[in-house]
Amino acid sequence: MSDAGEKWQVARRRKGAVSKSKSLQLASTSSCCQEQVDVMKTVKRIRDTVSELVCEKFWPEWKDQLLVARSTSLSAPPENKDTEDLTVHKENGRLCKELGCVCYGLGSFSSCVSARYQLAMLLLLLDAGQIPLKECYVYDPAFSSGERDVLRELGLTVLTENEEGKRLTTRPTLFYLMHCGKALYNNLLWKNWSVQCLPLMIIIGNSFSGMWDRMIEREFKRDYRYISQAVSVCEEKQLPCPSHLIDVFSDTSVITFPTSSLNELAKSTWTEPPEPQYEHCPDLEIILSETQS
Fold it and tell me: For residue 163, what are the contacts with CB-CB under 8 A and spacing of at least 6?
């Protein structure tokens, strides 16, 4: 497909529309045609897309917003005071914490143009945030074995378990969750629902306030209680999205959790937070692990 044809694919949807979880869209095809992946050819296409994105006018603002969030996250006190649980490196003779990264729900980037652009942006963000490639953990049940080989060739670490977003943060971490289902965000917040863990997190993904606006309030509070509570205490910075990439980066924000805002909530907010169940959500927009399905 020509570059012009690919850009038409990317921009084909109405401006402002938000895609559903790529994992759900691609689950039915991931086991058939996705296995035939030319690893080195795909790696080259991704790197070419990186070169394209770095020349886009909106990229410097994405980079600046990440660096601001990175500075805030690195200054947050860790949940575990033992420095052995943190990744450190020497800079000018001083020990400095590094940012880690987790990416869920990227989608089948070998066949989906939008997913390839999102992977290319992830690589740019890792470089800008000084995050070692091996410290970026990626997972999507839609990945084929060939796509997992591509990710390893790029230097990323491929997770083998479907965590459903339930990953505890004990170090400053960027979570890259592009157009993922609400349950995944909610699970991630639940697992880190404390004044100690949330400030360590940077989320680049769908706007929480946008989720709030698109749902009935009582249903949102009932089904996605952690997102609904986070809306009032998180800090969102909307990221720019050019019209020709509206299907790729629309509704994307940098989300952080200032300690000062979290401390304004009642202490009961943090007491034994119940694990989300989603019994009222027939369209969950997340692929459950085999043990839960």
Answer: 104, 139, 289
